[in-house]
């Protein structure tokens, strides 16, 4: 079933609601109880929990002061500006599918943030800023209990100072806020109150500063993407150039021709967006060139493949042709005679990605230890290339099958926070990734 139908609910002539998609069924089951149907436009159904007494009580949940659909990046800037200027207290909840993020306001100032997204969790933030290694994260997780937060355990184990933890908790809140402001799809709700225990640490983030930074990221991202397609790309110094300005020296010294931009950000302890900005300045000054990531080992090969197919399917889903591409890929897999075994235990998810560990193990079984890495790259290259072959003609068609000149108005937002106003052609974004898998 397509992503568009997973959350579909049908109301019949008797007024009975029937979940059509699995996601809709799951969400409705989780909301058992008595709800009040609120007046709304004919194309909207709005209900809120009231309990068996039929009245809205404080224990039934906070009042929804604002709600609406998100249709483009930056759409929430006006909402957050309103909350800030009005000096409201409450929680702004932003939901895209099953993924949710929240900003907490006190007198119009953002005092905290919360996210259900794996990459937003404090452990991942500490890793991206170079404060913890993967081994330290694993050790911290093993020692964490419901009574102690992750950061507190990391401090107790001596992995970082408390002052550094507090600083990066602020960075975590800022990064979540930026992702909220750059959200291009989903819905939002502003709730009049929130539970103080949901805030890991109180911050003091001015709405005006967050809005200015969001605009800067959207604006600068247009130029960054032309030269730096992703944070996995690798910068390399150009020989014979003079040293850069002092504010770029630390990033310059971290460039060794092997580290990706994400790895350089960890080395210098910066955010990935800031590291990207500085490397872009070095490129503009003619001091640095950037090349596509080179796969080093089977996990890197699968990571490149996953990024490529995720991008392809996201584009065709947006154009209304996702089901056709997935059907073609399924037929290709069955006909080739190799992918049923290669993807066993790691069947492609809805976004096209596969679980690396089973795929790598299956490649060893199919090709043997010595040839498995080379053959894995070749098999994934052929699969991703076929996906591109099927997708590109469909992207020139509208959902009704008519030819359109299509430029997306919903630019992608990746973990670096970089967003483009006009999306580059699919071939330019995916080609360099697939090219790294091509047989040499």
UniProtKB/TrEMBL annotation:
Pfam families: DUF4388
Domain (PatA-like N-terminal) ranges: 76-220
Protein name as annotated: PatA-like N-terminal domain-containing protein
């Amino acid at each position: 079933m397509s992503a568009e139908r997973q959350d579909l609910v049908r109301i019949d002539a008797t007024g009975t609601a029937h979940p059509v998609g699995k996601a809709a069924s799951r969400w409705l089951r989780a909301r058992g109880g008595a709800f009040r149907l609120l007046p709304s436009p004919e194309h909207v159904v709005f209900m809120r929990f009231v309990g068996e007494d039929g009245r809205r009580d404080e224990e039934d949940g906070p009042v929804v002061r604002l709600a609406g659909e998100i249709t483009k990046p930056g759409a929430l800037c006006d909402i957050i500006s309103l909350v800030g200027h009005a000096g409201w207290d409450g929680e702004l909840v932003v939901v895209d599918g099953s993924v949710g993020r929240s900003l907490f306001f006190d007198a119009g100032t953002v005092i905290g943030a919360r996210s259900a997204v794996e990459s937003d969790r404090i452990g991942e933030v500490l890793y991206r800023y170079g404060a913890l290694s993967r081994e330290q994260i694993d050790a911290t997780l093993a020692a964490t209990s419901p009574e102690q937060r992750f950061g507190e355990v990391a401090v107790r184990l001596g992995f970082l100072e408390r002052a550094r933890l507090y600083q990066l908790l602020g960075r975590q809140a800022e990064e979540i806020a930026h992702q909220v402001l750059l959200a291009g799809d989903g819905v939002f709700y502003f709730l009049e109150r929130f539970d103080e225990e949901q805030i890991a640490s109180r911050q003091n983030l001015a709405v005006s500063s967050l809005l200015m930074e969001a605009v800067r990221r959207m604006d600068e991202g247009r130029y960054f993407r032309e030269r730096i397609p992703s944070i996995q790309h690798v910068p390399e110094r150009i020989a014979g150039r003079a040293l850069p300005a002092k504010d770029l020296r630390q990033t310059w010294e971290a460039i060794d021709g092997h580290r990706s931009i994400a790895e350089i950000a960890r080395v210098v302890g910066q955010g990935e967006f800031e590291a990207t900005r500085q490397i872009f300045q070095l490129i503009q000054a003619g001091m640095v060139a950037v090349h596509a990531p080179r796969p080093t080992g089977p996990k890197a090969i699968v990571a490149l493949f996953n990024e490529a197919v995720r991008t392809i399917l996201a584009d065709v889903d947006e154009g209304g042709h996702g089901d056709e591409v997935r059907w073609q890929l399924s037929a290709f897999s069955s006909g080739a005679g190799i992918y049923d075994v290669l993807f066993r235990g790691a069947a492609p998810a809805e976004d096209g990605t596969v679980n690396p560990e089973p795929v790598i193990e299956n490649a060893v079984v199919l090709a043997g230890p010595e040839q498995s890495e080379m053959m894995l790259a070749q098999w994934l290259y052929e699969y991703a290339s076929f996906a591109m072959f099927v997708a590109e003609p469909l992207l020139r068609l509208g959902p009704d099958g008519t030819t359109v000149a299509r430029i997306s108005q919903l630019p992608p937002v990746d973990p670096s926070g970089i967003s483009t106003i006009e999306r580059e052609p699919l071939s330019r974004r995916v080609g360099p990734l697939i090219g790294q898998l091509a047989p040499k």
